[in-house]
Amino acid sequence: MEAKKFPEPQPYTDKPRPAIALEPVESNQVGAIGYDPDTKTLAVQFRRGARAIYHYPGVEPETFEAFKGAESIGTYFGQHLKALPFEKFAPDEVPA
Question: What integer best gives the mean pLDDT of the chain?
């Protein structure tokens, strides 16, 4: 079986961040998650590092519900979501 390839670290995007409300979750790795069903975009903010907000497009509602309800959100993320393409946004964007 071939090992999963994960995306290389990316710089912050210069696009404006779509408004997806984040809700805190109980996890050692993940700080907050959100979902926009209209665009099927999952938003994830991690507890460590710069606390960037990652948007994962094309995530089905059932996948979001499974993620949100997982016994271990961090483990679910690593097994099912980490390898997906994403956009990385700064945590506290200040309008120029």
Answer: 87
